[in-house]
């Protein structure tokens, strides 16, 4: 990325990828294109797909949104085949280039293999060093390429065994889709950090990060790929394996707070339902006398509705979001810094004038956008602005696939109550209230399967897998194949 440009959304946490797979559809490329369109919110920097007709792979990968990457669909007509995997990528700064666009593919001793990954592996630095020393040549800086090399080096007897062998050597968060000439293979890590669901329509199977990708195909949601499960889909149907040591589930609770589309089911439950409950709970924990509730659109809409329902304060559309801004923005001069936020959000003056406003946001990362929004709302005539956040303070970075800045850049990195007052003053709100971790977890458990467990590391600092420990474990215990 050019030095003069920044992301429009650089004050929000970012999902790093969305994945989609289809087995048994005569126009697998077109279906994958539509599935990736539905998953656009999970990655906007590049998109790609690999399609198999049973013998040959056909591939397209390009930078840009799905519509741009496939030139509004023109680039998929030559991608013949009935099995496909696709990937939308969001990248962290410095790795935004076409070489990192997924899926990756190789031609190795067993034939052809492609892989698409959502998540982040935390021991790949050591693995990469070892593999480079033993002859591997990498074309990208992506984790996924390391895994595909590990699969190729495995001496397992079948491709699913080789994949399991490779994934036993990595630690962290992964939902993977693999494609061979004749199989679609889906794998979720034993803690199940990132979501992955299976759907079906007639004899066609779908696998996707979120179920909104099934709805576009009128496919039925069958179930989630379970933590630690490998699903192999081939001409004989769907086969389930559990090739890894079980671990305590650590589903990313941020999927429910912000990342997943509200119309998706993630971790077996509707994101809208939990998000609305978070808003209701927030109204119980931080009530306030006010005239209207508004959301920072679009991601906080559902939580704001919940706050409104619980408090009895009417919900209004007080901010309009411009959906047509590009992914990057040329930084304006110092004096025009507010311009960036103003192009993205516009206050509805007729709604806000003379009102005491509750402004609901789903999370605060750096707080700079929220500060400008509060000022816009006041300038539109609001008498008071009370900010309510439908998640706890984000105090720690994420190692499991979410680009959450460094700890230094997180406005809530300090954990004392005085600091919450400082944040309130920084954003210019009259009052500020965050949902408690306890309240958030109570709702998440109430609306999830009894065996569900959640990762809350970015709030609590309690990491389900510590990167340093895992690197040590790898150095001490792992014997490499090949
Ligand atoms: S640290 Fe936060 S964002 Fe990362 S997986 Fe855990 S809950 Fe999700």
Summary tags:
binds iron/sulfur cluster; globular; disordered N terminus; seven-stranded antiparallel β-sheet; Glutamine Phosphoribosylpyrophosphate, subunit 1, domain 1; Rossmann fold; six-stranded antiparallel β-sheet; 2 domains; alpha+beta; 482 residues; disordered C terminus; 29% helix
Overview of the structural elements:
By secondary structure, the protein is α+β, with helices and mostly antiparallel strands. It has two domains: 5-250, Glutamine Phosphoribosylpyrophosphate, subunit 1, domain 1, CATH 3.60.20; 272-442, 3-Layer(aba) Sandwich (Rossmann fold), CATH 3.40.50. Helix content is 29%, strand content 26%. A seven-stranded antiparallel beta sheet has the order 5-4-6-3-12-11-13. A six-stranded antiparallel beta sheet has the order 7-8-9-10-14-15. Helix 8 runs antiparallel to helix 14. The radius of gyration is 23 Å and the shape is globular. The structure holds iron/sulfur cluster. Residues 193, 252-254, 398, 400, 402, 455-458 line the site of iron/sulfur cluster (SF4).
């Amino acid at each position: 990325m050019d030095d003069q440009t920044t992301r429009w959304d650089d004050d929000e946490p970012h999902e790093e990828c969305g994945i989609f797979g289809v087995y048994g559809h005569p126009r697998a490329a077109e279906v994958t294109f539509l599935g990736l369109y539905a998953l656009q919110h999970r990655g906007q920097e590049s998109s790609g797909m690999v399609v198999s007709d049973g013998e040959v792979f056909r591939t397209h990968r390009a930078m840009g949104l799905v519509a741009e990457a496939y030139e509004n669909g023109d680039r998929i007509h030559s991608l013949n085949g009935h099995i496909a995997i696709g990937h939308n990528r969001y990248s962290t700064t410095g790795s935004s280039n076409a070489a990192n666009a997924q899926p990756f593919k190789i031609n190795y001793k067993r034939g052809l293999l492609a892989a698409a990954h959502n998540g982040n592996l935390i021991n790949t630095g050591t693995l990469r060093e070892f593999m480079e020393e033993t002859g591997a040549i990498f074309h990208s800086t992506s984790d996924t390429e390391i895994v595909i090399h590990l699969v190729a080096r495995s001496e397992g007897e079948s491709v699913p065994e080789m994949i399991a062998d490779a994934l036993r050597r990595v630690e962290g968060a992964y939902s993977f889709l693999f494609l061979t000439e004749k199989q679609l293979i889906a794998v979720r890590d034993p803690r199940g950090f990132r979501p992955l669901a299976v759907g079906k329509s007639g004899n066609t199977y779908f696998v996707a990060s979120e179920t909104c990708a099934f709805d576009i195909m009128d496919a039925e949601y069958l179930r989630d790929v379970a933590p630690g499960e490998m699903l192999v889909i081939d001409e004989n149907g769907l086969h389930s394996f559990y090739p890894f040591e079980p671990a305590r589930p650590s589903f990313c609770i941020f999927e429910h707070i912000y990342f997943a589309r509200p119309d998706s089911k993630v971790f077996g439950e509707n994101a809208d339902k939990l998000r609305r409950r978070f808003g209701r709970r927030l109204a119980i924990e931080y009530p306030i006398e006010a005239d209207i509730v508004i959301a920072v659109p679009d991601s906080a809409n559902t939580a704001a509705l919940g706050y409104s329902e619980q408090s009895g304060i009417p919900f209004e559309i007080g901010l309009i979001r411009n959906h047509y801004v590009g992914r990057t923005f040329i930084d304006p001069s110092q004096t025009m810094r507010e311009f960036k936020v103003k192009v993205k959000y516009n206050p509805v003056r007729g709604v806000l004038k003379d009102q005491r406003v509750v402004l609901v946001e789903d999370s605060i990362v750096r707080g700079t956008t929220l500060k400008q929004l509060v000022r816009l709302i006041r300038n539109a005539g609001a008498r008071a602005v009370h900010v309510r956040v439908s998640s706890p303070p984000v105090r720690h970075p994420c190692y499991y696939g979410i680009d959450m800045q460094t700890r230094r850049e997180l406005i809530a990195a300090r954990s004392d109550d005085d600091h919450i007052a400082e944040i309130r003053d920084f954003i210019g709100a009259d009052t500020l209230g965050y949902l408690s971790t306890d309240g958030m977890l109570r709702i998440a458990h109430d609306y999830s399967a009894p065996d569900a467990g959640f990762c809350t590391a970015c709030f609590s600092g309690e990491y389900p897998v510590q990167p340093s420990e895992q690197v040590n474990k790898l150095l001490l215990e792992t014997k490499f194949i090949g």
